[in-house]
Structure formats: C-alpha cells, structure tokens
Write a structure and sequence with these properties.
This protein is an alpha+beta fold. The chain contains ten helices and 13 strands. Strand 12 and strand 13 form a beta hairpin. The chain binds coenzyme A.
Amino acid sequence: MNTSCIIRGMGHCVPDSVLTNADFERMVETNDEWIVSRTGIRERHVALNGETCVDLCHGASVAALEKAGMTAEELTHVIVATFSPDAVIPSAACMLSHRLGISGRMSMDVSAACSGFLYALETARALIALHPQARVLVAACDIVSSRVDYTDRGTCILFGDGAGAVVLTADAPGLSGGRVLDVLVASDGAVGDLLTVKGGGSGTPYKLGDTIRRDFFVEMNGREVYKHAVRAMSSVCEELLTRHGLTKDDVDVLIPHQANLRIVEAVGKRLDIPESKVFTNLQKYGNTSAASVPLALSEAVAEGFVKPGHLVLLGTFGGGFTWGSALVKF
Ligand code: COA
C-alpha cells in the first residue's frame, strides 16, 4: 500500500480589508505598543466586505490547483478544515465542491480549530493510502471575525481571516512538490474549556428571538492557552523528529501556528531552532486559526523562504485542545 503523499500545489487567499492596531485603538481600550509587545501582530485581514469561508477557500483552492497544474474536475475528494463554515448545513466542503463546478465526490468538513489543517492533512494521507489514485483538495479557512467580540480587547486584537489550500496525490518518481513524510496529531478534551466558541451549539442553543450572548464568541483564558500552546507544540514537534531519527539540525524551516510571536519564539527556543529558520507572517495576518499553517507555508514557498531540498517542520495548536506536527520535504 502506498502511504506517502505529496503536496502538488498550494495557494492562499485573504479578504481585502485590513484592520491595523491603530484601528483597534479607536475600537477598544488598547494601543499599538501593547499589541505589538504582547503578540507581534500589526494588522490582520478581515472579511468586512462579506467574504465567506467558501469564498476564501475557493480563492485558495483555485491558486493551489493552478500550481498543481490540475483542474477541479480531476479532484476525487474535497476536505475543508474550519470552525466557521458558511452554514451548519450544507458543509463548507459541499459548497466548495459546487463552487468549483464538481459533484459526486466525497466532500466533508474537519473541525479541529487552529489545528484543522494538520487534521485534514492526516485525513488526506489516509484517503490516499486507501485510494492511491486519489487527488485530494485540502482547504483550511476561518472567518474568525464572525465569532469575535469586537468589544473584548483580550481576544479581538489577536485574530484575522484567511484561507490556505493544498492539492495532494500519492507520491511517485518525477513529481515535484512537498513530500509529506509524516503527520502527528493529538487532542485533550479535559482542558477544552480554556478556549471555546459555544453559543449556537446544541449544548447552548439559541431560540428564535434570543439576544446573542458572550458565549457566541471566542472566549479563552489567554495565559493558560499560551502555556499549553508552547508546551504542546514543542513536544509534538520533538516527538515527530525523534520518531524519524532526526534532530533540530536536520530542520531547514520551522513553521509554527501563527498565534502570537511570543509563542512562536518560545517554541523555537524550546526546540533550539534558530530564529533565522523560523517563518512568521502573523505580523500582517494575526491568528487565522485553521488557515494559519497553510497560509504561512504557501507564503514561505512563494517567497523562497522554503527552497527545494528543505525539510520543513510544521507545528500547530488549537481549541479542543488539539495539536500536531508534520514533516514536509521539498
Ligand atoms: N490592550 C491593552 N491591554 C489589554 C489588552 C489589550 N488588547 N488585552 C488585555 N489587556 C490587559 C488585561 O486586561 C490585563 O489588565 P489587568 O492586569 O489590569 O487585569 C493586562 O492587559 C494583562 O493581561 P494578560 O492576560 O495577563 O496579558 P498577557 O501578557 O497574558 O497577554 C495575551 C495576553 C492574550 C496576548 C496572551 O495571553 C496570549 O497570547 N495568549 C494566547 C492566546 C492565543 O494565542 N490563543 C489562540 C491559541 S490557538
């Protein structure tokens, strides 16, 4: 059974509108210095013009298909990682397939918050192992702004909207792209209440006429999330390297979840990987949840930060809690 797969093309898409730290100074009691020193974030793209999850997935997917030299018609499976789909039903993946002009494929959403991309990647690997002819589209997108309370200064400054997408097939000699050597994902529901979006779920339903409550939006214990994120991301990256007999010196590029510059730096330090090998773009996008890692990977490749021959280590952490890592050889 062929279990190895390769990223044939990748793309990303963000909304046009930008919210800068100066914009937030006018919205809540905050300032640029506080935001930059605590998070590293300077601006984020936000769907102020009504862009939806499927809109951004579509933009990223078209770019990924173009890079892969494939048409949507060639796809066999469509997976979308998101916690903020356009609707509960139909799924974002069904809507994306339709937007791409295809039908008859398995199309499904994966929900793992900010770790969604690596969860979807692992799912795609399993599908390709089962169906070696599969050509799988994985799009990861969140319109976090649809679930952010813009009066809560503790959370609203952190997030942005965006999408990243990859097209995967079984590996074969002569193909170029990013060979997915391995993925390791995990979860722990015991600490799930530290980062939630509960309102509107069947546990906290809304009835017709109810006023939206705080629980409709992202709620979190920032300090606790910070500690868990650093610990989980570094240890899962270490575990994956060890599993392959690799050390930090074998890693050419580290792309951690773009939540916060201090978290990224702490993960780099724990792994003892120099800053020069760590890619960040959170300064201009904020935390885009499921899109964070593929958006960063897509940009890192496009900008030449990731070069042919590089071994890239991806790390992620999100609500659930969920976390994971992946090794991709370009
Ligand atoms: N501007 C100014 N002050 C703010 C603020 C803002 N936007 N947000 C919070 N504060 C205030 C707090 O009210 C608090 O004031 P107090 O001391 O008077 O109560 C003070 O700043 C310190 O808050 P604290 O929460 O201790 O700050 P921190 O150093 O932990 O930084 C985060 C806060 C949210 C930036 C940080 O905890 C973090 O990044 N956590 C991880 C969040 C994350 O990445 N979540 C997603 C993971 S997938």
